[in-house]
Amino acid sequence: MARYSAIDAGTNSTKITIAEVGSDGELVTVASDYESTRLGMAMAGGVISAAAISQTVAALCRFVALAGQYQVAGIRAVATEFARKANNIGELQAAVRHTCGLELEVISGNEEARLVYLAVIRDFAASRMPLLVFNIGGGSTEVIYGRTEPEERVSVPIGASSVARRFPNVTGQSSKAELQQISSYIAKTIHEQVSFLVNGRTATLVGSGGTMTNLGAVDNAHSWGDASKVHLYPLPINRLRAAIERLAALDEQQRKKVPGLSPDRAGIIVSGGLIGLAIAEAIAASQLVVSLRNLRDGII
Known about the structure:
CATH class of the largest domain: Alpha Beta
Shape: globular
Mean pLDDT: 94
Strand order of the largest sheet: 10-9-8-11-13-12
Number of domains: 2
Number of strands: 13
């Protein structure tokens, strides 16, 4: 089987997936890695810092070397929301090209949403129900509705990291009043930008991205004592809300000890979770399905 590699330089982290593609289009991941480059956090006035550029270039060069070890037939690297906003993204692209021999492509929010949907739909091809998919990133959240193909899609410029920057108290212990303020901001933004989120809309709600996979693991560990089974995990919305409230009552260091939660997500898990909760509440969903599929799967 042919091997391909996809790299996602995102607002919060930079990740690589190397996968074999079967004749039926099925993906088998053979290697993956990531680095918390925090590019969105390293932007001031729309400019990526020199230190963040150096760190990201080093990570991408390491990923290119990893792809070479697996003799991939092709490699595609994309940058998302932080790159769409950065005034000096050309500087990062030039450094990556010169140092790593890699083209870093800035994709639109619309294209990002399309690729996420193509990844998630692989697990629901036999379903007759339409899907409503959302992917929470560091700087944006993609929301897509469709059946075999995406029919409506939008990239909303709020993510786990960007909301945490706007409301810094959410990285630690947060009061109910603070959570309500953040929730109101998120709900208003989503209502204004996602016209196809209709209360009671019939669809299977699917949440992907690090926020939802971590919250799925946290709920699984809390409810069943097993944080390992996350992919296609059914998560009732009342338990999602409860998990967010439990995490919001802890400071960042306490969150790092919570079973199922990656320590590097501790500061942004509540802000990201509130985005997912707002989407679920917008369509009055009672449950969502957690998916490990991601942008990189869609690229491959």
